[in-house]
Amino acid sequence: MAPARNLKSQSLFDKDVLLRFLEERVGNPGTAAKHCRAILNAAIRDAERGLDAVDLSEMRVPSIPQWARDEVPKRFSLLTTKISTCATSSDGSTTKMVVELQDGTEAPPSLVVPPFSAA
Predict the structure, then answer these.
(1) Are 66 and 16 members of one domain?
(2) pLDDT of res. 50
């Protein structure tokens, strides 16, 4: 078994971990779930815009409390991995990517993407 890795932050997209964190602070599962949905919606919007971090400002997410605006970015990250190497075959039929995890560990080529073709 691989040794446990010590990570700086959790993924915002790990809904169970985010919800558990919010429930511990709020105490009310319904309120925590409402905050979780608002944070995840903001995270999805920012990820789709290509941002590296989520904007939890009061203007963008007015329904969450100030402590969540302060604490969530300290414990959670929008992106926890990045593509460190990307190589496309000479015929363009496949692309292999090496993913770098937040602790610097690299996952071996694990993704083969066929080219998109509109049929």
Answers:
(1) yes
(2) 84
